[in-house]
Amino acid sequence: TVVGKKSGPDGVIVGISTTGNGADTLIYEQFGGSVNNPSAPSVPEGMKIYNKSPNFSIIIPSDWKTSETSGKALLQAPPEQSFSANMIVTQSKVESSVSAKAVADSAKQIQQKEYPQYKVISEEAVIIDGLISYQRVYSWHSSERNVDVTQMQVWIRTSQETLFTVSFSSLTSLYSKYGPIFQSAIDSFKAN
Question: CA angle, 174 as apex, 173 and 180 as ends, to 5°?
């Protein structure tokens, strides 16, 4: 069963096939013609490459602030309505048998318990940088700040027992503005 399909690098359509036993397999269908794989990504005007971590790079808006602390990268938009839309990228080691979806399922159980008014908007297997990944968009209410928040979380599992978790947060009222920025950023993600 093909559960996800996305244009991938090098002019390739990438699908994910999930078998009955839960194993995921990448499916490649090559286009006719030549393969175009430039050495450096094209960066649209008003954007910049964040590559301060030796382990990943991502394209973000050029006016976003960046900081790094103890293995975590924080990328923040200018404040709007007393809130800064943001991305947090973390990296952790996982056993070779642990999939991105398994980690996402575990996170979902915790989120359902800890986030008031938690609601999944969408979730699906995706391909990020040629890697089988899992993406979820959900909303919840922050009682502490009395605001509704929408988050996109993406779990990217590399072949070296490394898991990147990329979390994007925005006020729900501004998600129509930031959702496309988040999606563009995750589409540009490269594990080094």
Answer: 135
Task: Give the torsion through C-alpha atoms of 105, 156, 8, 169, to 10 deg.
Answer: 80
Residues 6+ apart with CB under 8 A from 24: 16, 17, 18, 99, 101, 125, 132
Tokens linked to 122: 């969408």
- The pTM of this model reads 0.78
Backbone angles phi and psi of 106, in degrees to 5: -65, -45
Tell me: the pLDDT tens digits for 18-68?
444 444 444 433 333 223 333 455 788 899 999 987 789 999 999 999 999
Is residue 154 a contact partner of residue 133, using CB atoms and an 8 Å limit? yes
Instruction: Please name every residue paired with 86 in a beta bridge, in sequence order, or none if there are none.
Output: 76, 169
